[in-house]
């Protein structure tokens, strides 16, 4: 297989003819050939080829070819020479998401991120965004959103893509029968679909239990704990976190503390404010939790509390934004240090937290040893990503880890997110990392679709 970057042009001839410059004929090993099959995504057609005298790598597509396989635009793109005289344009990359489909913000709050992804990707591939309802499975086509040079969306019909990057925003939608069927259909058609679904916290802890080397970084955690287990955890650790298995953004999290001779304390967030309640007995604490979440207290986990390093008396943890790169290796792309707001249960920015660079945070705690501690945390994050990928049976392309460092300098993993938010990249010092994150998503799409140059592998 050979891979070449070329310029695609459109001509108005109605027939199914492809005009190929001499240099491109040689590069694709087509010299002397009269016919090829030209492929885009899952569509392919037979076509005549005619050499032309033109310096550089150029491909001219007659109207009959362009419309038959729905080539979305002219310009720079890769050509992949396959077996049996088949040449593939691409890759054709689909970004799966959802939204209200308004003309200005079709993907709601994610529209800016989608635009950035499409803008950066337009130099490497045919990239478009689409929603589940945009797929026509009978015709094997997608009515996708492409980005014009002026930054506006335009809709075009294209074949099923070579790879799908899943950014569906809703846990509820992802567990629907329709989305389950959609994923299975892509799998049956051998279309790589990465970031299968949101992680469930209890599933992640269970997966990592199978790897002793990775599990050492996970605090003691129990799913759907009984009252007896809750009491045992509080007696042993003195403080724990009680949080929903499928929660996000810190919603529904309690910090529960047991202080002998003083009682039990519950800290949580309600109506945008931090709440602290004291209970004289364990039973009264459990009555409060049951009144708020039902008798069964299902779909919750209880997790050992960790005494994190602090700045100004406020604990800090770290969001590690991980990506698979173009060589299919895990790397740390961005790190944000999150300082908890005063009295807050979590370090989430929406709950009064502050965002710092890791250098700022670790420098204040460890001084000259900050870089040594950071490198150890990076190595841990990569180990955790590699372990999670081995245990998880679907393709992963990015992970957001919430890691903490305790006062003995031990590193802990609290959460893993399959579709991490991008709020850390709003920090002025992390904008370059935000751009690198986009580039790694695109490079991984090229890797999964097998559009990689040999010198990049």
Automatic annotation (TrEMBL):
SUPFAM superfamilies: Glutathione synthetase ATP-binding domain-like. InterPro entries: ATP-grasp (IPR011761), YheC/D (IPR026838). Pfam families: ATPgrasp_YheCD (PF14398). The keyword Secreted does not apply. Signal peptide: none annotated. GO terms for molecular function: ATP binding; metal ion binding. The keyword ATP-binding applies. Keywords: ATP-binding, Nucleotide-binding. Residues 371-446 form the ATP-grasp domain. This is ATP-grasp domain-containing protein. It comes from Paenibacillus etheri.
